[in-house]
Every structure is written in structure tokens, then in C-alpha cells.
């Protein structure tokens, strides 16, 4: 669901290659913790991907929120209501308008402002 870097067991990036969003990835076993406490999936010999990029994190909205496809355009007329649980993927994106957004769906671009969550 989110572009992902490949890390080693010390949480250092392995090369400059990234896994694009919606790329099928075969994981080896369940999530494990790295030395710094990060949850990851092992995808190869000393190669790991952050679990949040694959599984997502369930967050609760503290405000009603629109779904956006860019910093200025809404994805549709949908309104997510306060108290709704939404799965977000990866770390926030910062758009040109300077505001941070979580990716929430796909394969078309769907984002919700970070400020709408607790």
C-alpha cells in the first residue's frame, strides 16, 4: 500500500531500491522486531520491510474528514465521520501545501489529513 525501502537487521537501508506500492511481496514468517524496536517483515537474507507499509495501522478519526487524491482535489464526495476507524499505511506524506496526509486506500490515490486523527 505504500512505497517501501528495504532495510537490514540494523535498520540501515540496503541500496537505493524501493518496493513500489501494490507490489506483491513474499514474507518469511511473522513480524519481528529490529534492535531499535521497529516491527518488520523479513523478505530475504538480512532484508526487511517495515510492517506498517504492508499491514497498516488502524487509527480513529477525531474530526470529520474528507478523502483527497491530491493536496487540492477530493477523491470523491465521501465524508469519513468522527469516531470512524481508518487503516493508514506508512508514514505521512507532506504535499506542496505543507500539510501532512496518510495514505488510506488504493489503487487510486486516497489520502486523509493527519490533523484529523488523534
Automatic annotation (TrEMBL):
InterPro entries: S-layer_prot, SlpA_C_lactobacillus. It holds the Pfam family SlpA. Residues 1-51, 52-115 form the S-layer protein C-terminal domain. This is S-layer protein C-terminal domain-containing protein. It comes from Lactobacillus panisapium.
